Amino acid sequence: MVKLGVNIDHVATLREARRSSFPDPVDAARVCEEAGCDSIVCHLREDRRHIKDADVIRLRKSVKTRLNLEMSIAKDIVDLACRIGPEQATLVPERRKELTTEGGLDVVRNEGRVRKATGRLAGSGIDVSLFIDPLKPQIDASYRAGARIIELHTGEYANARSGASADREFRKLVYAAEYARGLGLEVNAGHGLDYKNVSRIARIKGMNELNIGYAIVVRSIFAGLGAAVREMAGLIR
User: Fold this and answer.
1) What is the pLDDT of residue 103?
2) Is the pLDDT at 102 greater than 70, yes or no?
3) Helix, strand, coil shares of the chain as percentages rounded to 5?
4) Which pLDDT belongs to residue 71?
5) Quick one: pLDDT at residue 221?
6) Is the separation of the CB atoms in 2 and 199 below 8 Å?
7) Would residue 10 show up in a list of annotated catalytic residues for this protein?
8) Residue ranges of domains in the chain, CATH in brackets
9) Catalytic one of 10, 43, 50, 153
10) Could you say which of 33, 70, 156, 209 is catalytic?
């Protein structure tokens, strides 16, 4: 059964819009877990634009499923992750001016730095995943860097402007998942997935977990957070 990881960053984004104390991402995580998600995902950005250090510390204490910390390979962020000890760390690219993570981590170009970060995190007992584009060279580099989990970037599929384009991007994801599983890697996927496009990705053979945030938080405005999580879980399972 495909698992669902819920990214709660945008709950913190709402809080920061008013520099308020609510909505609290810890409360959101509790609702998501009660609704049946399999992990809680949050991204501790270097500029701390939404999730803060204190949020991660509180989430580490309260999350009962798995805490998946998205993060850059910057030394201070890696240091903090090793101290806090989430169950999983997902290494992602990060640019200060981007609205959201744009594209996968270029492991080919940064293999040495990624290997160092992966080794430190793994040495602290943290499972390490690399968020990458569905490309064979990136999968090979991820394997060499010591990761045993990858998360395939589904943004190109989600943003496809035509059915033919979506089909082409979907085939890339299918091939990438098959190739990665052949290396013994666990395969997750995420980015841009919503209630209309997620089912097809969930049916990819061997898919372990889909990580979804924005679509769920948006749906929660109208349906409630618990209902939004249960609906998404039903679609992927």
Assistant:
1) 83
2) no
3) 45, 15, 35
4) 97
5) 97
6) no
7) no
8) 3-236 (3.20.20.70)
9) 43
10) 70
